[in-house]
Amino acid sequence: MDKKYSAYLCTGCGIGDVVDIEALSGVVSSEMGMECKTHQALCSADGRALIEGDINENGVNTVIVGACSPRVMQDEFTFGDDKITVRANLREQVAWSNPPDADKEYVQEQASDYMRMACTQAKKSELPDPYLLETVNKRILVMGGGIAGLTAAKEAAAAGYEVTLVEKSDILGGKAVNWRHSFPTKAPWTDMETPIVNDLIQAVQDADKITVKTGTEVARTSGAPGNYNVTFKGAGTKSDWDAPAKVGVDEQDAIDKGTMEDPNVGLQHYMKDNPDGEKFGAVIMATGWTPADVSEYEHLGAGKFQNVLTNAEFEKIAGQGKIVRPSDGKPVESVAFVQSPGGSEHDRDFPYCNSVTSLVALKQAQYVREDNPNGKAYILYQHMRTPGNMELFYKAAQNDDGIFMTKANVMKIEESADGSLSVAAEDTLLNENLNLNVDMVVLAAGMVPTTKDANVVNLAYRQGPALSDLDLFDGYADSHFICFPYETRRTGVYACGGVRKATTVDETIDDATGAALKAIQCFESADRGVSVHPRSGDKTYPEFFMQRCTQCKRCTEECPFGAIDDDEKGTPLPNPTRCRRCGTCMGACPERIIGFKDYNVDMIGSMVKSIEVPDDDEDKLRFVAFVCENDAYPAIDMAAMRRLGINNLVRIIPVRCLGSVNMVWIKDAMSAGMDGAILLGCQYGDDYQCHFVKGSELADKRMVNIAETMGSLGLEVERVAVKQVAINEYHKIPEIINGFVEEIIDLGPNPFKGF
Amino acid sequence: MTDEHTPVSGGILVVGGGISGLTAALEAAEVGTDVFLVERNPYLGGRVAQLNQYFPKLCPPSCGLEINFKRIKNNRRIRVYTLTEVKDVSGSAGNFQVSLETSPRYVNNNCTGCNACVEVCPEERDNAFNFNMDKTKAIYKAHDMAFPMKYVIDMDACTKCGKCLEACKYEAIELDMEAKIFSLDVASIVWATGWNPYDASKMDKLKFGQSNAVITNMMMERLSAPNGPTEGKILRPGDNKEPESFAFVQCAGSRDENHLEYCSYICCMASLKQITYIRERYPEAKISVYYIDLRTPGKYEKFREKLMADEKITFIKGKVADIIPEADGGVTVVAENAVTGEKVQEKVDMAILATGMAPAIQTEGAALGLQMDSNGFLLGDADAGTIAAGCAKKAADVVTSNQSATAAALKAIQVLRR
């Protein structure tokens, strides 16, 4: 677009008290060549009318607002999709960050730089032109035909979408088809229920919009949200369309040199499009769980004594009729349900339990009572885990005299000649050790997610076939985000049910329904050409200037979301509908060929260069701070609101994520004579807080390279720092920023200043 | 988008702007649905806005709220009404007429958030956001990160002296602002009305309100929060003592027929999380946890085990029977160890009651014709266009609430498309 600029300065909220507005206006008009108007409350109806007047009467389409933080008054300063607004944060970062006795000259220079940067940003910013797929496929693939998969399929279809449900086994229903009863899913939460699975199967089979494929599994899923290409195959068979294993840059080198075997021999290349594949818009992963192996617990006789069963084995027997002992077919009279492995080491439950196994024991204890009015069930637990309303189910079971429950540390289980078992336990609520003789022992084995040892989703992606980082969740396909439980590192793939965590039926139904919504939202967003979470609605996407690409593969390797594939030569092949718009690729690219319409290497570099660096005044050092716009930037705003004071030698530039910080910006700053650069991002490590997973961690890694560069230039490495700060740690902001500035002041000015 | 007074017809209504309501509203809007989000408080964020950190990551809730607020600002399909309550619902699924009332904020959209009004206001009020552990002026912003970032006047504290009117340069204050009644036509309604902390003073033996040393877990969140009444210092209310010993009283109200018969789901993890707050500030403090069961299942188990390795923390299986205020400002906690049978009496500087979640809507829900279970949790009937989400439906943690809220968004959309 042909841009017509106009800049506006607000003098309200204290800005006019600390800044010489006339002089500032002069900087904008003389240096930046833009008309500049002022108003005492730009956000007021009158102030906006001033801007709107210029838009309507003078054809202004690019507006620079020097006022409050871009985090506030967003509606007030939005003038339509065909206009660009750039904000300079003069209120929080200048008026509210300087103490009353601050040197006016310094404050004026600070405000001038913020306006120079904003005007530069406006000049380098373009309106977004959304990425649109030729056709957006809105069919949903549901993997898994258990309660989670059936629910997801049914709910997506009820919202009007076509669904294909694939199930490995020959029948639908998953584990639930073997259940005698299920625990309660609704008020009053006291009684066992008839499993809902048969109704669900019926509903799915009756739904016109749902296609069911049993005995089938996914060989590979290639493509991207809105345009997945899925190859199916017979369950348990091999196909040359099976998803290729991940081959990283180093592995590929080794394969090329012949020092490593290619793991993908005989498989179709990961970028090859199967002409016989079926098209989908999004994938719901509801592949469930398998019962955990408890044979490692020798003191409990697992796998050794015939009448020691797992809860899953017990359920199967109970589902088939009266409960009888495997050793001799004798109907059971007494059963001990052992909830924890016991021993003196610890009081934890069996692995992969969550709270489900406590509920299963309560249910199965009632089976014993159903089958035999004189039957006795003993539940031996360390911690009875019946959270929320499930407490009412627990309480109801306590009213049954035949169900005996106690905390107990199970030490040993032994078998008698007749096959009955003795259970020895300590630390019980009876204030004495316990010795029980029972017909059968049931161990509360956990639910191991199908993703623990298999790729399951089988993506044909450059970064490999599986979801990432599942070791953080013991192999469950869970999300790392508490606030955003469906977000993973693979856009368009949404896990639910037992593959995500050991979970109850009522929670599974909610989870699966939610996953269906996220799947729908994903391709509907693709259809509008906008990003999904966390930059939902963003119409920009990374564009690559391929002529200058050197095939270094950094972008394909570093993208946290696996959005970039590549060709045989290593040239990146971006998938914009997988992309979350964090800009990590842009930060990674040494050739600086990746950028967004309103956020790119040239823009931020030019903003850095627009900062005026005095070369003749040893007191006027200059610092640039690249700060994460999601957390660090709001924290700085809050520090300003509390008037905590931020050194006015610092110029703050918000970035989408620290992962998007291209190291050339730091070089730009240093070669412009600036004295230091600080990057503020989110906490990283196992409990990372980065919305884009890897941002601050990558920035920290890249620092190693920048340190080398600085060293070779004869600059101290201390001039560049990466710090972690959480959004609520605004009290730490002065210490972090001002502390950094003071360190560099001690170090002295950039020796190359003025060159 | 925070345009508070431009209703359009159609769409869905989400009642409650806590984490569940925000999630339901945003997830629906990002599919392309028109959403009205109403919240009774002058700010969004609900209970989680009061929390210092989430378990188990120990990350600040304001981080996720900031993203959610940004999503609202960027999405023209959502309209937010704060200080607003549902008065009446008529019609049926696909065609509800909802009558609502917005209480006066006494501050209009001219407010820039500059704080000049607060500086001149001579009157004070108890700060409910901080459980009355400090005061705000009569004109106040609920908390630092309040969204929308606008002030509000508590008319119970305001004397209409007019000082703020003079101080405000933007004509943002309207002391004569009146309540507005309006109506919306929507296809379905998501009720995400959340929870209130169970009233700890109902448990006589636990002496809440009788000794300053007895606080609730939600008060502990505010004491630990950098934007709380003590700027994150954990001090005993009243005498500001730095406590040297703490007792956590689990199931204070929950799992108790006389109070809340259900388990409140989050309190075990919440207490363990709060132990990390204490440990960070007082490395030598002695901490005891009195519990019935430690409900830290699944991935929370690692969190528990790390704390159980701390030698200065004692875990006692036993329900607290009594708390006795002591002359020095501390309290003695009385319990029976369920495993050893021994009676335990422990003197501590501070006792934290792990009070549970009581559904917030209660009697108002009944007045609106909503079906509830015997504990006041909403049953919901998705076919009838009435969908319950989050802790309005059952006690749950944030992850589970958000799963249920995302599900609620789809159920609401289904009604719209029938």
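Chain A touches chain B through 97 residues (CB under 8 Å).
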